[in-house]
Design brief:
- By secondary structure, the protein is α+β, with helices and mostly antiparallel strands.
- The protein folds into four domains: 20-126, Immunoglobulins (Immunoglobulin-like), CATH 2.60.40.10; 138-273; 290-400, Immunoglobulin-like; 480-590, Four Helix Bundle (Hemerythrin (Met), subunit A) (Up-down Bundle), CATH 1.20.120.
- Helices cover 24% and strands 38% of the residues.
- The chain has eight helices and 30 strands.
- It has helices at 2-19, 138-145, 449-477, 479-500, 505-524, 533-542, 547-562, 570-590; strands at residues 29-33, 37-39, 44-50, 55-58, 65-80, 83-96, 100-104, 108-111, 114-117, 121-126, 146-152, 163-172, 176-184, 191-195, 204-208, 211-225, 229-233, 237-249, 255-265, 269-273, 290-298, 302-303, 309-319, 335-337, 341-349, 352-365, 369-373, 377-382, 387-392, 396-400.
- Strands 11, 12, 14, 15 and 16 form a five-stranded antiparallel beta sheet that branches. Strands 21, 23, 24, 25 and 26 form a five-stranded antiparallel beta sheet that branches.
- A hairpin with a 2-residue loop joins β15 (204-208) and β16 (211-225).
- α4 runs antiparallel to α5 (505-524), α5 (505-524) packs across α7 and α7 runs antiparallel to α8.
- Mean pLDDT is 79; it is low at 14-23 and 410-425.
- Residues 1-21 form the signal peptide.
- InterPro entries: BatD.
- This is Protein BatD.
- Pfam families: BatD.
């Protein structure tokens, strides 16, 4: 009897098992993990599967993990004995960021107007694990055949001596890499930096650790250390999509490739910067490091008082041309000197900065005489010879040939005798004693047509002011109209903000989504809490918006959601922006 009793219960248990994870209407939505325990050097596949198509899929935040691939979608549909079988899956590949116990939270989706949520699942992340022999993954192959290297020209420079850093990617001939995306760019703290921009860097045949590779330069930068001691250069990190061969072959015997996303980093580099020697340092040294020439020139040496001349103090050569002070000339007080105009002609190559910098002084003498411009000295440190050098200019004599005399003339060429004032006969003009004056009574403003018109103008403006005031009061009382106008302004504002952020995926789609939402608030009078694509589609259909415009609007909202987890190119962003402008314009006419 007991055995028969248990046998009778088996169908009930089977039905309960089949009903597990299903809603009353037979709809299922669940999360599946490839494993619930993994090493920190492994990856985890997370699938969200449903047996009926839905909308507004919202993944969990994957706290403790980094999404390296996904979401990717797969759909399976079949008929068997007249019964339709349907399955749709959103898949993610994630990698752990730390060891410990983590929980992958709930995902949600709306199916037939009802929200379904998956059950959270726990994952344990342990120390890095050794994979058994033969279990070589695409990531392992990518690690072995993909290298990003920071090549530093000099790891032990002097303070303010130029060094170059070239970030070069080495790719083995057995794999292919594409779709690079910069993740982390060094800040170069304690360095003065200058990027060397070159477009369309070629791919070259190269060697890495005595093996043939293809190489491409991703970034070139020239650095001038501003502090002595050990300085660190932060890592430069990029993300690549890599295709690696597998052990499988296709029908024609060709290797089957597997795709993966790989993050490669050049790693930190330490630069040991030597301080400039104190022994032999000149008093006028202002920080110039390199190999320079120095000169002081004037465009003329003979002129009259109140005329001007240009004196140029110029340093040319190769070194830190933008990082030191130019020496200033010491001029006699009888020469009026204006603030200098700084001139710069410097170009930066991978070997450092070269060119010339200078100050151009405008000098105006006040008195006649001869005025010397004393020699000016300029000191710099040459890292090649490891010595200080001092350059001096020649003395320049300014000869002012004519003009008022100066009793304190340092040249001694001006006489102390007073000069005789001679007249030329035209110092004074004749003053007219009988001017030709006329009365202005006929041209006076009072009692004219303009006078009375200005008096009547305020009275004529009173009716116009009353009409304007009534219209403003009517506009202020139109609460619904004001709300619509405000929402339209916000929509235009956010659409304009989206255009300004083209190229920045996250900022662009946030601004685009806000623009779409505010437009709907203005036209359909619904609150943000009511937003779901099913609700929007039904309301647009009620408003008799055509299907193409409605589908375009819903598609834009889907792209805004998918942009949080997928890669979108600038071309895709431009297309979405153009589509948003067209959809809003068309919908506005139809509504």
């Amino acid at each position: 009897m007991q055995l028969k009793k248990y046998i009778c219960l088996l169908p009930l248990l089977l039905l309960a098992f089949l009903a597990k994870g299903q809603d009353d209407d037979g709809i299922t939505f669940e999360m599946r993990l490839s494993k619930d325990k993994l090493g920190i050097n492994e990856r985890l596949r997370v699938d969200f599967t449903m047996n009926k198509d839905g909308d507004n899929f919202t993944p969990p935040d994957f706290k403790g993990f980094k999404v390296v691939m996904g979401p990717s979608q797969s759909i399976s549909s079949s008929w068997y004995n007249g019964v339709r079988s349907y399955s749709k899956t959103y898949s993610y590949t994630v990698s752990p960021t730390a060891k410990g116990n983590f929980s992958i939270g709930q995902a949600s989706i709306v199916i037939d107007g009802k929200t379904y949520k998956s059950t959270p699942k726990k994952v344990v992340v342990t120390e890095a694990v050794d994979r058994p022999n033969g279990q070589v993954t695409a990531d392992d192959i990518a690690d072995e055949h993909l290298h990003l290297v920071a090549e530093v020209s000099n790891s032990n420079p002097y303070l303010n001596e130029a060094i170059s850093v070239v970030y070069k990617l080495y790719v083995s001939n057995s794999i292919s890499a594409s779709s690079d995306r910069t993740i982390d760019i060094p800040k170069y703290e304690n360095f003065w930096s200058q990027d060397i921009t070159r477009t369309n860097e070629p791919v070259r045949n190269d060697t890495y650790k005595e093996k043939p590779y293809r190489s491409k330069v991703f970034k070139r930068v020239v650095l001038y250390p501003q502090k002595s001691g050990k300085l660190e250069i932060e890592p430069f990190t990029i993300e690549m999509r890599v295709d690696v061969p597998t052990s499988r072959r296709d029908f024609f015997g060709r290797p089957v490739y597997a795709s993966t996303t790989k993050v490669v980093s050049a790693g930190r580099r330490t630069i040991t910067v030597k301080p400039l020697p104190e022994q032999g340092k000149p008093v006028d040294f202002t920080g110039a490091v390199g190999d320079f020439d120095f000169k002081v020139t004037t465009n003329k040496t003979s002129l009259n008082a109140s005329e001007s001349l240009q004196a140029d103090v110029e340093v040319s050569g190769k070194g830190n041309l933008k990082l030191f002070q130019l020496p200033e000339p010491s001029l006699p007080s009888a020469l009026e000197v204006y603030d200098p105009e700084f001139k710069e002609s410097v170009r930066t190559t991978i070997s450092g900065s070269q060119g010339k910098v200078g100050n151009s002084y405008t000098i105006v003498p006040s008195f006649r005489g001869k005025y010397p411009i004393p020699p000016i000295s300029f000191s710099y440190f040459n890292p090649n010879t490891e010595k200080y050098n001092t350059l001096k200019s020649e003395e320049i004599i300014i000869n002012v040939t004519s003009g008022p005399s100066n009793d304190n003339d340092p040249s001694g060429t001006v006489s102390n005798n007073k000069q005789t004032v001679t007249t030329t006969g035209n110092q004074f003009n004749f003053i007219k004693l009988t001017p030709n004056l006329s009365a202005i009574g006929s041209n006076y403003f009072f009692n004219t047509s303009c006078f009375y018109l200005w008096w009547l103008l305020p009275l004529l403006l009173i009716p116009l002011a009353i009409v304007i005031r009534n219209k403003r009061e009517a506009r202020a009382g139109d609460v619904t109209g004001n709300r619509l106008r405000k929402a339209n302004r916000l929509a235009r504002k956010y659409l304009s903000a989206a255009k300004k952020t083209l190229g920045d995926k996250d900022a662009f789609y946030v601004a685009l989504e806000k623009a779409l939402h505010n437009y709907l608030k203005a036209k359909l009078k619904i609150e943000t809490s009511e937003f779901s694509k099913d609700k929007i589609a039904s309301l647009l259909q009620e408003k008799k918006v055509d299907d193409s415009t409605k589908d375009g609007f819903i598609g834009l909202l889907k792209n805004c959601e998918m942009a949080r987890y997928s890669q979108f190119s600038k071309v895709q962003m431009q297309q979405d922006y153009d589509l948003a402008s067209e959809v809003i314009s068309t919908m506005d006419k139809q509504l």
